[in-house]
């Protein structure tokens, strides 16, 4: 008999059915006893003792996954990115978000599930493309362009969701975001202090909240500083084709001495601006000043550090986890704005005599 019991233990985790056979009771009774008899069922003390002794003899330990399912919670947080592939490379701009998410989730006792296979379907608006995230108790979403309809359905059905990045357009969707308005305004103030009177913003031609926030901060700071002139914002659908050396020379001839670009997933606006300055035979910062509203792409890390600001990605990831766990525990979550730190860099200097 002892040999048979040892064989049971060696072949894997003992199950409640084995405890029930050894104790001579039903599996339901084992479940009640090992679950702490929260139902208050009357059991003979000898029955309880036999179950506990059988469990000890077999080395039974509760299955954590089963306990979580019984409590209707998995202690799993989902992370879903709307990029074509999930950003796990260190050089990817989204990677620091994941670092903050992982650290905060671990500190709060949650595991993570990375949803990698639905991005294409979600982007195309395929019905049910996001339903897989229900495997997790709640989910974090990140990405510049989102399938609003699919995400709205999840939120309307009461699924806990938090977007990393401001998303006012979806009622009920909690979010955490960087304070791009104030960070951009600070960059403009710094350029104004350097004597620049004509400053131009180059941004991509879409309505992503991160872009509109930057433009808002840019325009408000120009107005506060009393910097007038022609429309200072260029929306480029194809930056590489539109922000050319000829275009830049024309703007420079008109008196623009500082150019500002936004950071995006591709860095297209910043790349185009750098190429245009070089192609025009100008130098930053002696001829023109350049500023980047965010961090440069990883492949441009060897270039001079741009003046601008740093996005607190790890802090945003951690704040998103706090917001999501707040939804899970209290049903409420704030939508905080996280401050960005100004980066002096080396691409902006005093305005040239023009």
Shape: elongated
Task: Quickly give the CATH architecture of the largest domain.
Answer: 3-Layer(aba) Sandwich
Mean pLDDT, rounded to whole units? 84
Assembly type of the shown chains? single chain
Q: Which structural class do you get from the secondary structure elements?
A: alpha/beta
CATH topology of the largest domain: Rossmann fold
As a percent range, the share of helical residues equals: 40-55%
Strand fraction equals 15-25%
- The N- to C-terminal Cα distance equals 97 Å
Number of self-contained structural domains = 3
Number of helices: 14
For the secondary structure, the number of strands is 12
Largest sheet: 6 strands, parallel
CATH homology-level superfamily of the largest domain: Response regulator
Biggest sheet: strand arrangement: 2-1-3-4-5-11
Instruction: List the helices and strands in order.
Output: HHHHHEHEHEHEEHEHEHHEHEEHEE
What's the CATH class of the largest domain, please?
A: Alpha Beta
Spans of 5+ residues with little confidence (pLDDT < 50)?
1-11, 118-127
Q: Which value, in Å, is the CA radius of gyration?
A: 28 Å
Organism: Prauserella endophytica
Protein name: LacI family transcriptional regulator
Pfam families: LacI, Peripla_BP_3
Keywords: DNA-binding, Repressor, Transcription, Transcription regulation
